[in-house]
Structures are given as C-alpha cells and as structure tokens.
Amino acid sequence: MDFEFIRSYYPMYVEAAKMTLGISFIGIVLSIVIGLICSIIKIMEIPVLKSIVNLYIELSRNTPLLIQLFFLYFGLPKLGIVLSSQACAIVGLAFLGGSYMAEAFRTGIDNVDVIQTESGLSLGLTKGQVFLHIILPQAIATSVPVLCANIIFLIKETSVFSAVALADLMFVAKDLIGIYYKTDEALFMLVISYLVILLPISLICTWIERRVRYAGFGNTSTVSGN
After folding, report:
1. pLDDT over threshold 50, residue 199
2. How high is the pLDDT of residue 220?
3. Which of 76, 88, 203, 204 could make an SS bond with 81 (beta carbons 3.0 to 4.6 A apart)?
4. What's the confidence (pLDDT) of residue 103?
5. Which helix (H) or strand (E) segment is 93 a member of?
6. How far apart are CA 61 and CA 88, in angstroms?
C-alpha cells in the first residue's frame, strides 16, 4: 500500500465527499417531502391523484437509479430540457427516494389505530387537526426505522452518480485508477470515505430510533421495510 499516494490524493476524496453529502442532503429532504405528500394522497384516496401516485411509485421502485439518471442526463436534452450533472443527481435521488419514503409513511399511518381518529373527531377536532396533531406524529415515529434505512440506502445509491459525469467519490476513484493504476489505494480511500460518511449517520439513526421507542412509539416489528 502506497501511503504517500494516499496522503497526496485524499483531499480529492474530501471534496468529493462534501459534494456527495450536499447532494444527498437536498435529494433526501426532497424525497421526504414527496413521500409525505404521496402517502397523504394514498391514504385519503384522492381520485386520479392516487392512480398517478401509484404509477409513480411502481415506476420509481422498479427502475434502477442508473437508468433514471441516464434518462435525465441523456434523454431530456432530446426534449429540449438540459439539466446539469448535479441537478440530474438531485432529481434522480428525490425521484427514487420519494417512492420509498411514501411507502414508509403510508405504513406508519396505517399502523395508527383507527380508534384514535374516532376519539379525536368525537372531541370536536376536524379531520385535518386529527391528522396533523394525532396521526402524523405517531406515523412518523413508527416510520423512523424505515426512514433511516431509506436514507442510508439513498446515500449508498450516490455511487452511480459518476455515470452522468459528476465528480463524486466513485468518479475520483476511477479517475485515479485510470491515470496511476493505483487500484488498491484508490479503492481503499473509497471504502474509507463511504465508511466515514455512513457510520455517523447510522449511529445517529440508531440513537433516534431508541429515542422514539422510549417515547412509546417505534415498534419496529409493525413496520415493514423496503
């Protein structure tokens, strides 16, 4: 192992990791918003919109992120829509993640006992108030384990961003291997980079799961994963 090579080029991985985290953060926030909206539409069974949401979820979950990125980067310009590499990465991550988040929220909402809705309505609350103040907090709490798993899954999926010429961690590793043939060193730094990114997030997710469980929510056995 050439540690001098690692010392010389690790700043490239640091910059790529910063960009990966930035894109992941924006994409995951958007996916949570999309997922929450889609889950509400499905739970409320809004005509037409529910069918559109179902189609979106099936399309998103059954096509690889790489194919979605190719469509955004190479297909949309044929229609006159040109997106930058970063925009493609954010849109692709939000598109893929939204469907997984929607299912997580929907499962969480389904697990809230109906009697709580009936109790809220009997107290004079509107349906919107019941959903916002009673159903949604519990649904989010019970969905936390799946949401955390989805977040880690989405960050791992960023490894294909190099396919649309984005200088992410994988792009840097492949670039160094192609130029210097330092395969072991480049892959070692790649593994360490993802470990440095994902391990703290995994620990934070575990801490949050314990907190919501102590609060009386978060029975993970009732929520199915992706």
Report:
1. yes
2. 47
3. 76
4. 86
5. helix 85-110
6. 18
